[in-house]
Amino acid sequence: MRVHVVSDVHGNSTALARAGDGADALVCLGDLVLFLDYADHSRGIFPELFGVEKADRIVELRTARRFAEARELARSLWHGMDRDAAIEGAVRKQYAELFAAFPAPTYATYGNVDIPRLWPEFAQEGTTVLDGERAEIGGLVFGFVGGGLPSPMRTPHEISEEEYAAKVAALGHVDVLCSHIPPDVPELCYDTVARRFERGSAALLDAIRATSPRYALFGHVHQPLARRMRIGATECVNVGHFASTGTPWVLEW
After folding, report:
1. Residue 237 and residue 222: Cα distance in Å, rounded?
2. Residue 32 in contact with residue 6, Cβ under 8 Å?
3. What is each CA distance from 75 to 72, 78, 172, 191, in whole angstroms?
4. Membrane spanning segments where (predicted)?
5. What are the φ/ψ torsions at residue 31 (nearest 5 degrees)?
6. In whole angstroms, what separates CA 54 from the centre of its chain?
7. What is the Cα–Cα distance from 228 to 233, expressed in whole angstroms?
């Protein structure tokens, strides 16, 4: 059995269409939407609406951890616009391309920049969306937990720690624990390029210690200090920043 795993697709529909080649199934751990590309400030919803110069500035502020100033800049740019309508229209356009690129079968969960309420409109036959739910793939039980935790970035799909922990608990014992964000381990949460810690989940870490899945797979941290480590019997793996690599992580058994 061969499963390909991707995360942080961020608009890369071209590579996504090839991500399932040679695999029995594709697993996607979220963040389909590209709001702003930190490597190329001309790409994404933000520069499409406001231009590259404003994108340069907001990246500069966020990288310097001047989040209040970044939010104030964003508020000034959105003034007089229907922010929700503009974003939703752009997201719908991206989702139409991305969901059409998914092979069958695909098992997917949400990232922190996704908009879950739109997914039922675009998920085609052969794509199974799971959140706080389990699926059997090739005789192994995969558990899925989507979304992110509250952060200074205030991304669209951040939920409370209590809600997140409840979804983790609902999975019970699984062979492969799949999430968008990592367990709360410093080496797995630190982004060496952004030079900051991203939010990891204590509930995921507790579940790994308590139930010892074979694998814990996640993304979210684009340039992690550690891409993998063992916690007890569990192999924890950041499957990679698919938007930039275009290469899925491979799980075979």
Report:
1. 12
2. no
3. 5, 5, 42, 27
4. none
5. 60, 65
6. 25
7. 13
